[in-house]
Amino acid sequence: MTTHAFTLAGVPLTALPSGALWLAETRTLVVSDLHLCKAERFARKGRGMLPPYETRDTLARLDEDIQLYDPACVVCLGDSFDDVEAIEAMPDNERLWLTRMQAGREWIWIAGNHDAGPVELGGDYLAEYKVGPLVFRHIAEDGAVAEVSGHYHPKHSISGQSRPAFVYDENRLIMPAFGTYTGGMYANRAPLVQMFSAAAIAVLTGPRCLAVPLKAARRR
Question: Is 5 left (phi over 0), alpha (psi -120 to 50) or beta?
């Protein structure tokens, strides 16, 4: 198996090797923290020149999941662009690519802390979104249950090799960043580890999903 199946609040979920989440019952595909046009923002802000291909790579991987699963709805959990100006700087060919992926399906942009929502690109812009008992938002809230969020870019390591990772317990799921130029925060260190119970599982992404205990009790 290359995927990892689990449940949250009784809802069957599947973590995909790409870092996307699949809800088969509602045919919903969820991705978080695309950070599109990050290289453009770095250049504009004088923070260095990165190879300007990350947006195409991120869109290609998202398109691959869309082609494979044919979702009725795609939910982007915030920080879809690296900032508001980056939305305006997106090249026309990449805008057209995104428009093609949106065609014939519902598309939800959740507001993030980097972008207020790319409302001019089609789709619906929301602060949060609900599917059955699950609530989807950008940043996890204290005491929340049945919550799916992003923001923290969790990663975890086995034998020294770290990978972007899903992290979940009985109450919440925090998704890995999907964008190509996104770093990560170790899930077994503060503040992430403090959000999960001792039963938390980390699901490493990559060629196949690898689920391992997070091995850290909640620190109070």
Answer: beta
Pick the closest to residue 154 from 175, 130, 180 (CA basis). 175
* Res 17 pLDDT > 90: yes
- Pull the structure tokens for residue 206: 């990559």
Residue 165: partners with Cβ closer than 8 Å, 6 or more residues away: 154, 155, 156, 176, 184, 187, 202, 203, 204, 205
Q: b or e along 45-54 (b: 16 or more beta carbons within 10 Å of the residue's beta carbon)? A: eeeeeeeeeb
Q: For 75-115, what is each residue's pLDDT tens digit?
A: 999 888 856 666 777 788 888 999 999 999 999 999 987 56
Are 66 and 30 contacting, i.e. CB atoms less than 8 angstroms apart?
A: no
Task: List, for residues 149-177, the tens digit of each pLDDT value.
Answer: 999 999 999 877 889 999 999 999 999 99
